[in-house]
Amino acid sequence: MERVATGTEHVSPEILDYVISHSTPPDAVLDELRKETARRFPDWAVLQIGREQGTFMALLSQVIAPRRAVEVGTFTGYSSICLARGLAPGGSLLCCDVNADWTSLAREYWQKAGLADMIELRLGPAAETLRSLPADASLDLAFIDADKTGYATYWDEIVPRTRAGGIILVDNTFLHGRIFDDDPDPDARAIRDFNEHALADDRVELAMLSVGDGLIFARKK
Ligand SMILES: C[S@@+](CC[C@H](N)C(=O)[O-])C[C@H]1O[C@@H](n2cnc3c(N)ncnc32)[C@H](O)[C@@H]1O
Fold first, then answer.
1. What is the pLDDT of residues 53-66, one digit of tens each?
2. 92, 128, 131, 175: most buried by Cβ count inside 10 Å?
3. Mutate to test the pocket of ligand 1, among 4, 34, 36, 47 (most ligand atoms within 8 A of CB)
C-alpha cells in the first residue's frame, strides 16, 4: 500500500496499514482527489488528512448530521468532502482558507462529489471570517486544521458559537511528536500551549484521540 506521511509516526507502519485496510476505504472521488493533490502540489500533499481519519470524520459527521458546520483550513478539500457528506438536508459547511490555488482544486472536487451547493468557501484569514459569523451558538460541528499559531484564536471564536452538545475537532495535536521537547519552534509552542488551553476550558469536555497526528474531540457542555 502506498504510504503517505500524515503525522502518524507514533504508530508503527504495520499498525497503520492494518488500520487503513480495516476501515471503510475512501470512494473514487476522494481517491482521485488524493492522487490529483499529489500530482499538482507534490510538496504540499502531506497537509491532507489521512484516509483513516477521513473515514472517521465522515462517519462522525453522518452521526451528528450537522445543519451548520465550519472548517478552518481546507487545502484541496479532502476533509471538507468527508464532513459535508454528513450534512443534514439543507445543511451547510463554511470553509475558511487563504490559498486560492489550493482551494481551486477543492472547488473542482466539491462539484465532482455533488456537494458544491452545500459548501461555501471564504478566502481570507480565518480569524476574520470566524469573527464575522453570528454570535449565537448555532454550530453543530467544527474542524480546526490551519496555521498552528492561530489555533487558540480559532478555538476562542468557535467555542461560543457552538451549540450545547456540538462537536469541535482539532487536528495535529501531537505535531509529529514535537510536543514533548522544549522545541522553541513557534508551531510546536503554539500546539503545546493550545492543548493546555483546550484542556482547561470548562465549557467543553474533550478526549485527545490517537487518530492521524492527534485529534482533539471536544463536546460543548
Ligand atoms: C493542513 S492544511 C488543511 C488540510 C485539509 N484539512 C485537508 O484535509 O486536506 C492547512 C490549510 O490552512 C490554510 N491556512 C493557513 N493559514 C490560514 C489562515 N490564517 N486562515 C485560514 N486558512 C489558513 C492553508 O492555506 C492550508 O490550506
1. 999 999 999 999 99
2. 175
3. 47
